[in-house]
Design goal:
Length: 486
């Protein structure tokens, strides 16, 4: 790095204006902040928020049992430390009305999220045999979109540690509970959310306990008319006890262009539970890519190739607001006619850790085809998005924040020529003593939990709880997340 480059990148940023009645500092405490939205960002200069690049990790599970098949869908992945990874999905070999009697709920498991098996759970007999992986059957319409979660609310009885919601507009959303995630029972006969006349609930209905908001939340399909067009939309409701639910309210997408979101897949991120992430299916009805001859060549059902879909990334920090930071696809359909059919490329619910420095999400592929399966995609930890600066360098200035802890931990990556530096400033934009960018260590490398230090050391406890700003300087580098810890 030349002296001029260092001067440009470490020169004090213009001091932010100080206004009377300014908002209170954003209280970070010791939580991890991601580069997923602008919630903690005041300004970007020569840098940008950039979506991650999922890496295809191969087929995770073939949907090839006679009771699974071409129309299997609505997959959920669950994982708790020290326990098997669990996969739930609809088995449906034939196309039919939503909630028809031929749909079942299937189960698979894995020790590591990489290699999956279908155990004989011996819960439901099929053709006189219990040797199958079906956990729910004969309870139409609830196998259409059975979507479970692990209830992390403190004090939940072991027999109700697993919960689920399922249903369609005519049935309402029914609640289910389980102690082992395999044997389920209805929570009560009455639905938790009532039947409705309009088409609602007809994709995955995503519920979870939110430690961030101190309540249960559920996100589900509704429709919204925008500029004369009916779009697949998302609404949500909340509950203190999973039994009594608020009136549903539409989610606000912050003025972003309207699009059909077939699934929302909203769930707390496992490393930062105050951030809800959705790797969801974006649907384009009537946008036909394949010719009839191409459709016949891959054996897709003739009713399921005249639309296409891809995967997008959305986020929320609770309440009724989504962020569409990135409008472009997070995962494109990719090479091959089989990826450009209707209702393919639908992501499973939840992102899970699958190795040192790695996490994975899963996608239903080849819908309506004999080759229907679940595909795995991997990312670095926190790698859904980053703050990126190129060779010319750039910086990001935070809002006024407060923190708790003794050291600053960064998840970052640089080239051999690049670096990351950090400056702590007071609320007026002045470098704190001994914590200027010029006194900061130049981080070069690739770490998911790198400790930052200045010439005076890494301990920043003396500045805890006071209003300050962070200034990150980057050259040919990406910053994925940070937190104060220790």
């Amino acid at each position: 790095m030349t002296r001029r480059e260092f001067s440009l990148l470490t020169a004090a940023a213009p001091a932010p204006s100080v206004q009377t009645g300014a908002p209170a500092p954003l209280a970070l405490g010791g939580r991890r902040e991601l580069a997923i939205d602008h919630e903690w960002i005041e300004a970007l200069r020569g840098a940008e928020l950039r979506p991650g690049l999922p890496i295809d990790a191969g087929r995770a599970l073939a949907l090839d049992h006679p009771w699974e098949g071409a129309f299997s869908a609505y997959t959920t992945i669950l994982h708790a430390p020290g326990e098997p990874y669990r996969m739930y999905y609809r088995g449906s070999p034939e196309a039919g009305r939503d909630g028809n009697a031929g749909e079942v709920t299937c189960y698979a498991e894995s020790p590591d999220g990489l290699q999956w098996t279908k155990p004989a759970v011996r819960v439901h007999a099929l053709a006189g045999s219990l040797e199958n992986n079906i956990i729910l059957a004969g309870q139409a319409p609830y196998s259409h979109n059975f979507s479970p979660f692990i209830d992390t609310r403190p004090g939940v009885p072991e027999g109700a540690r697993f919960k689920a919601m399922a249903g369609v507009s005519s049935s309402g959303l029914r609640g289910f509970v389980s102690g082992d995630g395999i044997r389920w029972r209805a929570l009560r006969e009455e639905p938790l959310l009532p039947p409705v006349r309009q088409t609602t609930y007809d994709s995955q209905n995503i519920a979870f306990w939110s430690a961030h908001e101190g309540c249960y939340v559920v996100y589900f399909r509704t429709w919204k008319r925008i500029n004369g067009v009916n779009y697949r939309h998302v609404s949500r409701a909340t509950s203190p006890d999973f039994l009594n639910w608020s009136q549903p309210a539409e989610m606000d997408f912050g003025g972003s262009p309207p699009e059909h979101l077939y699934t929302n897949q909203t769930a707390p991120y496992f490393r930062a539970s105050h951030v809800y992430l959705g790797i969801c299916a974006r649907f384009f009805p009537g946008r036909q890519v394949l010719s009839e001859a191409q459709a016949r060549a891959i054996g897709v059902n003739p009713n399921y190739f005249r639309d296409c879909s891809d995967v997008v990334l959305i986020s929320s920090r609770g309440g009724h607001r989504y962020q569409r930071t990135f409008m472009e696809a997070f995962l494109r359909p990719g090479l091959g006619y089989q990826n450009w059919v209707s209702r393919s490329n639908y992501p499973a619910l939840n992102i899970v850790p699958t190795g040192a420095g790695e996490m994975s999400f899963y996608v239903n592929r080849n819908y309506g085809q004999p080759t229907a399966h679940v595909q795995r995609y991997r990312l670095r930890l926190d790698g859904l998005a980053s703050i990126h600066a190129g060779y010319a360098g750039g910086e990001v200035l935070s809002r006024t924040v407060s923190f708790a802890g003794r050291r600053l931990e960064l998840n970052y990556s640089t080239s051999a020529a690049g670096f990351v530096r950090v400056e702590l400033q007071d609320a007026a934009g002045r470098p704190l003593p001994g914590r200027s960018a010029a006194e900061g260590h130049e981080l070069v490398g690739d770490e998911t939990a790198g400790s930052y230090r200045w010439s005076s050391g890494e301990d920043v406890a003396q500045f805890a709880a006071q209003p300050l700003r962070l200034r990150f300087l980057l050259k040919d580098a990406d910053l994925y997340s940070f937190r104060f810890t220790g």
